[in-house]
Amino acid sequence: NAGVTQTPKFRVLKTGQSMTLLCAQDMNHEYMYWYRQDPGMGLRLIHYSVGEGTTAKGEVPDGYNVSRLKKQNFLLGLESAAPSQTSVYFCATRGVPPGANVLTFGAGSRLTVL
Amino acid sequence: GQSLEQPSEVTAVEGAIVQINCTYQTSGFYGLSWYQQHDGGAPTFLSYNALDGLEETGRFSSFLSRSDSYGYLLLQELQMKDSASYFCAVGDGQNFVFGPGTRLSVLP
Q1: Does B50 contact A at CB distance below 8 Å?
Q2: How many C-beta neighbours within 10 Å does residue B105 have?
Q3: A84: helix, coil or strand?
């Protein structure tokens, strides 16, 4: 039982390159989230999904796209990476009651854009 | 919109008690949560309050006052391993907004 798995764990990109971060969960959770974490700024929501085939914008969606074609996977894409997107990205999932108020996080993906 | 405030840093000695406060302004409120994050690690869930009052889980307790838009996390019998960042988060039914985090340093 892996929980929430993020790939890759580390990546270095050049400005303008594209990439996709994958979040996979085996808990059958409906809700999935992508957050970014920068020093001193806590976790900021990029995009989220309330179920298969649905996505919605969070607090800082610009420069990112997402897809949830399968319930267990939530992909975060950067079409043209910028240095401002250097950050640690966390995927999180949430289930139904009684665990509806608990977020389970992946280990994180550290992205550096040069 | 939603915003949360927490102290940026707190320092305490081993065995002591420390309280980390969180104030929030939200357009919708479905509870206050607390998460712990060690350096280089992922946030992990500690506690959740939907209603006013105190919730206790071992050495950790969390308190909520909805009328004051205020909550706190209380850590008792501090241990070195409690050195970490602590985040409060407010849920609005679909999303969770996190505070900036409080870095707790536990000294021997």
Answers
A1: yes
A2: 13
A3: helix
A40 Rama sector, left if φ>0, alpha if ψ -120 to 50, beta otherwise: left
How many Cα atoms occupy the beta-carbon half-sphere of B39 within 13 Å?
Answer: 5
B51 at interface of A, judged by CB pairs closer than 8 A: no
Write down the pLDDT at residue B89: 95
How many Cα atoms sit within 13 Å of A63 on the Cβ side? 14
Asked if A107 has any chain B CB less than 8 Å from its own CB, the reply is yes
Query: Could you read off the pLDDT of A60-93 as tens digits, one per residue?
Result: 999 999 999 999 999 999 999 999 999 999 999 9
**Residue B75, Cα to own-chain centre: how many angstroms?**
10
The answer to whether the CB atoms of A102 and B48 lie below 8 A apart is yes
Report how far residue B49's alpha carbon sits from residue B95's, in angstroms, rounded to the nearest whole number.
16
Cα–Cα distance between A44 and A37 in angstroms, integer?
6
Average pLDDT score over residue span B4-27: 95
pLDDT, tens digit, 9 for 90 and up, residues B25-44: 987 788 999 999 999 999 99
HEC letters along chain B: CCEEECCCEEEEECCCCEEEEEEEECCCCCCEEEEEECCCCCCEEEEEECCCEEEEECCEEEEEECCCCEEEEEECCCCHHHCEEEEEEEECCCCEEECCCEEEEEEC
**How far is A25 from chain B, CA to nearest CA, in Å?**
15
